[in-house]
Amino acid sequence: MLKIIVDEHIAFGDVAFGQFGEIHLLPAAKITAAILGDADALIVRSTVRVDERLLKNSTIQFVGTATIGTDHIDTSFLKSAGITFANAAGCNADAVAEHVFAAIAQLAIERGMQLGELTIGVIGVGNVGSRVVRLAQACGLQVLKNDPPLERRQAGENFIELDALMQADIITLHVPLIRSGQDQTFHLFAAGRLAKLREDVLLINTCRGAVIDNTALLRWKKEHAGAALVLDVWENEPDIDVDLLRHTDIATPHIAGYSLEGKANGTKIIHDIFCRHFDFTPDWVPRLPEVEQPNLTIRADAGIENALYEALTPISGLKKTDARMRLLYEFTPEQRMELFNEMRKGYPLRREFFNYTLRLEPMNINLALMLNTFRFQLAY
Questions:
Q1: In the CATH scheme, what architecture does the domain 2-87+259-278 have?
Q2: Which residues are catalytic?
Q3: Is the peptide bond before 314 cis (omega within 30 degrees of 0)?
Q4: I need a surface site. Which of 12, 71, 231, 305 has the fewest CB within 10 A?
């Protein structure tokens, strides 16, 4: 019988893996070398650092992370130790893209932006970035793309150099955190690159906090009041810079990908790879509850920006989440770290757009086609 250690906050972790052996659901802080000594498999989130220190005296054969990112995993060690590794690439890509456009819609209304007149720079055009590109094009935004690794594999895809993208009206980051080498993204946006941005840019980061030098970003933002910042990720989480928080227009606690569908997808991906490794039949399928209020009516005669705002705002919960982040001002650094983690753990998982049906009043076929690109159902 297998001994399987699973982070207790992994959605459906008990039912997805419990059938295969002795399962231990534990908080991240209690996933230690001692508990892993005689275990066969470890299933984690980004809150557990998996490396030689954790695993060197264990019998672990399989490590899975129900996340896209792998910067918390020492993949070189796992390979050298012969431990099979799997991540859930693409599991919450739709959720992150939807979060990005909920933020764009909110700021478009607040700042009087006309999306059809603007340029968006998408840095990183993988699972998430490619979805952002598709939605941006549907909204009439001019799209600029930068992704050197992908460009090397797909010549002729109209990629541009990063510095040539700096004058875009909106810039959104969707790259993994890579600390060295040809494709280093650690502090990809340091002081020098930030200085090349438009003074009224909308800068969005939903990938990893350290892709932007947060100290340099704060200095830059204090000098560029007309710019807007949307930050879901922060350097040194959960010990985030509260001064930077004060200068951020929309702030969230690393939850851009936290949809129920994204969580279920992540568990399903790891479950299936786990089954292949241990020679089980991957027959578990997550069953999600129906959305309680799936029908929305929106105005279709007030422009794309208003339609997006009315459709996306009730679903995204951005304003409530941002308001909770502002509570961090009132606490000590130690309390802030605890509260940041609690906000992530207790975040009420939103549902993705395909669960909702929109009624446009009056009907506008072009707007309906655009919203259908966001995977909404349309009532005709």
A1: 3-Layer(aba) Sandwich (3.40)
A2: 208, 237, 254
A3: no
A4: 71
